[in-house]
Amino acid sequence: MNVIKYLSLASLFFLSFKSSSQNVRFVTQGTIEYEKRVNAYALIKQQLKLWDDDSFSASAFESYQKNNPQFKVAKSKLVFSNQTTAFIPEEDAVAPSNSWFSNMIEFKQANHVLSNLATGTSKIAKKVYEETYLVSDSIRKINWKITDEFRNIAGYNCRRANAVVMDSVYVVAFYAEEIAVSGGPESFSGLPGMILGLALPHDHVTWFATSVTDTPVTDDKLKIPTKGKAVNNTQLYDILKKALKDWGKSANQTFKWTML
Fold this sequence. Notes:
Layout: H1 2-23, E1 29-39, H2 40-48, H3 54-67, E2 71-81, E3 84-89, E4 111-116, E5 121-128, E6 131-138, E7 145-153, E8 156-165, E9 169-176, E10 194-200, E11 205-213, E12 229-231, H4 233-243, H5 250-259
Parallel strand pairs: 6-12
Antiparallel strand pairs: 1-2, 1-11, 2-3, 3-4, 4-5, 5-6, 7-8, 8-9, 9-10, 10-11
């Protein structure tokens, strides 16, 4: 009798699991709206440590705090269809033009990114101050470490993963397995689902999805600007090293954010 009861319960569990699994719908096309938030106060304090004139920098930062909010917010979107994604900035989180910090590259959204996840290649229309480059190369390979932490983002249950890129940049990502595309904002990808939350904690910036629209995407939506000087990552690296050689301590920060 106990055996029969056990088998009956096992059968009910299997049918229940099968039914719930069949109800899960994996998203492969749509549009994700992201909000980029930059902690401007923390970022500027970090940058001022590289300056030599302490009295001037303290005065400039005090003036900035009086006239600007702590967080700068920018909008972007990711359009995706199966194995193709297009990351498109919609506005910059730029400080007012009369601020000493208006040209900080961290406030800007300089990259339009078109990724072919099937071939592992990408094209990036990258604006570096007054110059625009069209960077064609392989998608960055990231050694993610998946954790058991979860967070709900834009209605999706997302799992946390951590990584280090460019030897020193610590990255935290939250990805949704229900969106069966291995993409994400900017040039971040490579997880078993779509990245809906991304943070660079030591650099005071985050990208989090505010909405996901599950609708078919036509090919004309999967485009980025095509004008710019054609280069690959190695060529851009060499160009930047030459251009920034006289920038002193601030060169490393500018170089990191440009190549990120």
